[in-house]
Amino acid sequence: MTNSISEIKDTDFIFAIGTNTTETHPIISLEVKKAIKNGTKLVVADPRKTEMAELADIHISHPSGSDLILLNALANVIITEELYDKEFVEERTENFQELKETVQKYTPEYAEETIGISADTIREVARGYANADKAMILYTMGITQHICGTDNVLAIANLAMLCGHIGKPSTGVNPLRGQNNVQGACDMGGLPNVYPGYQKVVDEKVREKFEKAWGVSLNPNNGLSVGEMMDNAYEGKVKGIYIMGENPVLSDPDANHVEEALKKLDFLVVQDIFLTETAMLADVVLPAASFAEKDGTFTNTERRVQRIRKAINPVGQSKEDWEIICMVATAMGYPMNYDSAEDIMKEIAEVTPSYGGITYRRLEGDGLQWPCPTEDHPGTPYLHKGRFAKGKGSFHAVEFVPPNEETDSEYPFVLTTGRRLWHYHTGTMSRRADGLEWKYPQEKLEINPEDAAKLGLREGDKVKVASRRGEIEIAVHCTDRVPPGTVFGSFHFRESAINKLTNPARDPKAKIPEYKVCAVKIQKLA
After folding, report:
1. Which of 236, 362, 385, 490 is most buried as measured by Cβ atoms within 10 A of its Cβ?
2. pLDDT tens digit string along 456-486?
């Protein structure tokens, strides 16, 4: 997030797109509800009629995969009606003319014709966002999990820069992270093309710095994304994989392909707190410690680094993740001699400029938001104040790209996926909680009553859902939360493993799969 969670309640306008906030980020949704009570206008763009959509002043139910048409149409109105912040655009941005020329054809009428959202609604939303004193954009994986996910994010950034809604409190571009430390994992180089602090692998000076710090010679090339690893494993090019705290057999798209790829490996290691579906395929399972059994830090969605403290000692033979990694590295001939998680934090501060001023001593309390470059720096509640890190912010002229897979006579429905309030990710933890399992014991496929009637379906009927990759059996829930032609399911349940259906086609830039659009057919079972 460019801004902080606490700033949400003080904004004047919230545009939430591709985020089911009340179910996937319930604590943040409380801040949204505070904002509504304070008079904030809420616009939600989501194919489904979620609880968040029901709270909204305006709900835009656009088809899955059409975000770029909507976002470019909003930019078109803002530019055509000269609602943009001319001073901000002139002083702090570049490539405005290119953007202006590209969005010229994405008129509100064009959007109405192509995605079914009225031109008047698009104009109302564009004017509301542009004219607000403080406006925020919230989004999650409904924006990113497309083959054009990176372009979707760039189009959102275009809107924020057009209107000067960035670099100030209660504004900004605010992706809500889906797991408690996914921001921290990315910050620490858990990506194939960067070292900690998003320092590029291909940058020779950066690489030399880390070679000196770690006493090794480092590969100058970017690594593989998760999807690319699975493809290479399936083709026999990757021989071994070490998986920590991840369950790709349920969470990755085209899950049958993933399982086959993992079975073809010469050696699979899984480090986890439970024997997951993926761990069952492993040659070796390393028992890790849970959050309550270790010391360290988490970095949350607002870039806040917070201490976690050991409440109990690790149970049985389990160990903290860093200890396991050190033992494995040492056994492989590279001694890692850290004595504690705090030792590692000290090294992080030495090699990661945005974490340079963060120490355990300074984290006593509410934590610190990076960038925090020095020990006398207070942390950064919001980014881009006065200037962008690169100098001028670049507008990106991005064109609409249709989903990789579209419906046809054989596969007439669009499946889109997401999460439920009561469960988390692949259910590794939440489905072991009796209360949560009692509250939501099985997944049901959401289907519009019109579609259900055509298929002769009633509430709770079992169906077979098939895509071009696999099939599952699942009960149906008839609801107008989904529009006709669209169905929805979560990926929490191994009994109805929805990712056996989903499309592994990836965004060529970020390499994120297109979970949100998948063509399926539905057959009633006896």
Report:
1. 490
2. 999 999 999 999 999 999 999 999 999 999 9
- Mean local confidence (pLDDT), 345-351: 97
C-alpha 185/C-alpha 197 separation (Å) is 10
- How confident is the model over 180-186, as a mean pLDDT? 90
Task: Return the axis-axis angle of helices 341-351 and 204-214, rounded to nearest 10°.
Answer: 150
Rounded Cα distance between 62 and 107, Å, is 16
pLDDT at 150 over 90: yes
Residue 181 reports pLDDT greater than 90? no
Residue 206 to residue 351: CA distance in whole angstroms: 10
What angle do the packed helices 108-115 and 119-131 form, to 10 degrees?
130
Kindly state the tokens that stand for 80: 């055509």
CATH architecture of 182-369: 3-Layer(aba) Sandwich (3.40)
| Cα–Cα distances in angstroms (integers) from residue 412 to residues 279, 416, 499, in the given order | 35, 13, 18
Q: Of 260, 234, 149, 19, whose CA–CA distance to 514 is shortest?
A: 149
Enter the tokens of residue 286.
């390393």
User: Cβ distance 277 to 247 under 8 Å?
Assistant: yes
Pick the CATH number of 5-176 from 3.40.50.2300, 3.40.50.620, 3.40.228.10, 3.60.150.10: 3.40.228.10
Q: How confident is the model at residue 147 (pLDDT cuts 50, 70, 90)?
A: very high
Look at the domain 413-524 and name its fold. Barwin-like endoglucanases (2.40.40)
Residue 457 to residue 291: CA distance in whole angstroms: 44
pLDDT single digits (tens) 9-52: 999 999 999 999 999 999 999 999 999 999 999 999 999 999 99
Name the β-bridge partners of 307.
297
Helix segments in 365-507, DSSP class H = 434-439, 449-454
